[in-house]
Specification:
This protein has 606 residues and is α/β, with parallel strands linked by helices. Helix content is 64%, strand content 9%. The chain has three domains: 15-335, ABC transporter transmembrane region fold (Up-down Bundle), CATH 1.20.1560; 351-432 and 544-601, 3-Layer(aba) Sandwich (Rossmann fold), CATH 3.40.50; 434-511, P-loop containing nucleotide triphosphate hydrolases (Rossmann fold), CATH 3.40.50. It has helices at residues 2-11, 16-48, 58-66, 70-75, 78-121, 126-131, 134-176, 178-184, 188-225, 227-232, 236-289, 294-335, 396-403, 426-431, 447-451, 460-469, 473-477, 496-509, 526-538, 552-555, 575-580, 584-602; strands spanning 357-364, 373-380, 385-389, 411-416, 419-420, 433-436, 514-518, 544-548, 560-565, 568-573. The strands form two sheets. A six-stranded mixed sheet has the order 6-7-8-3-9-10, with helices on both faces. Strands 2-1-4-5 form a four-stranded antiparallel sheet, with helices on one face. The protein starts with a helix and ends with a helix.
Amino acid sequence: MFAQFHVLWQLMRGQRFHYALALGSLVLATAFTYLVPLVGSATIDYAIAGRSPLDASPLLAALLALLGGAETVRTHLWIATLAMVALTGIGGVFTYLKGRLASLASDGIARRLKNELYDHLNHLPASHHDRADTGDLVQRCTSDVETTRQFLAVQVMEIGNAFILAATALPLLLSLHVPMTLISFALIGPIIAYGYIYFARVKHIFKSVDEAEGALTSVIQENLTGIRVVRAFARQDHERAKFARPNAAFRDRHLRLLRLMSWYWSISDFVALSQLGLTLLVGARWVATGELTVGMLFAFVSYLGMMLWPVRQMGRILTELGKTSVAVARIKEILAVAREPEPDARPDGDPVLHGALSVRDLRFNHGGNIPALNGISFDVAPGETLAILGPSGAGKSTLMHLLLRLYDYTEGSIRLDGHELSRLPRKAVRRQIGVVMQEPFLFSKSLRDNLRLGRVNAPDHEIEEAARAACIHDSITTFDQGYDTLIGERGITLSGGQRQRMAIARAVLKRPPLLILDDALSAVDGETESMILDALRKRHGRATTLVIAHRLSTLAHADRVLVLDQGRIIQTGTHAELSAVDGLYRRLWQIQTSVEADFQRELPAG
């Protein structure tokens, strides 16, 4: 348990001053609240019952003096009433301050945790995201952080409250009557011991419940992401059945936790009420025999009522501590993953690239038996357009990922303008590369904001120029709000071709020295494709361009073509050269041209 408290102490960094103020407010609230039963006890025994103030303990005597003396209180009972109300009110003010300060501190910690998690996730290696479950990551960044926040806001102060109440009540009660104090605390120890045992028993259940909730979130997230596919294939019943399994698992684990919690509350309630009953029985007997005054019994019962609830809450606190320790462990699992390694800062600053690319004996393996790239070498001059062709799994996209430093190569060399890629900062490399992925991603923002992703301060006329180059300007002008039109999540309100053209315009607007088009024209028609390629060739300050495509018409106008197969370069040359010799390129060209010819012949008949 002490390890968990150490973790919480580490989490409180930056907010410990607020917690110290909250703890001070709690001490003052406890002090004023604890004076209320003493005022009642003094009034009952020395103002109403007429006992001599000389027999009062020093603390009670001091209280009577502050109230004006026993005789004054006897003739003006409203003084005691007013004092008790005032003390309760002052205690309430400090209780409010305690809660406010603790909430401010916990909200600050939660905000910092979310920022750290979000920033850390954005700097984790691509290989980690390949394995990670998106729903589980969302669960850790939201639900687990919220669990931690609630504990820091409420339960931490409850722990302090329980200890302060016990530490304050014990000496007070001992000063009033030692034997009665022992009776009043007889069952407090067993309640605390039972809470500790309970915490040790159920801690592992919290982890299983959290994991089940993460699995449930993953299913929901996946279903909502692919909702159109589910409907298109009429798979609603299958998805409902798939959802029912993790939902039932979460229910079963949560019910098991609730059953254990109900046992704890039932037993702790029985023990707490037994403690109260024991105090009343023994106290009443001692009042009857004269060993205890009515006022003292009132004070003991009042203090016991104040203490029993926080003591009983220790079980709940330990329960929440268990949940929080699991949540914090899951958060720390993410933060413990090493970020993408970065080279040391260059004393001369980040280099300005011009697009010269040199690849030598490059090898890369994703972890399987067959390497994705197996010793490829080629050069690209600044401003040159290099087309890359090959069957699925040939290594085309892997090469693009290595150029973007999404993965790090360990064998071979990639040099940009003479600089070894692995020695350049990732952000410096990515800032100077424009890329259009196979599956273009657009954010749920305006079209203008999506285009400005690479250049946030790009002027409007350059945005329009890039949109014209990608043949998307005319489509944008048909929208009611033009470039300020908001698009749905992942750009779902646009067609596939429009999303691809938006992604091309976004990459062009960035004005990078190196432009990568990874199968970026697959969703546009042949005429639009030709227009886009012509615009890219003619644009001012032409960048070095790498084009990956399966449609050979996209590659026909490239300066050179590389043909990859099983991670090796098997052919290189211009379109005309490769079409004239036997090989994979020629076979693919013949197949595609014959298919297109057959389609054109059959089109009028349709």
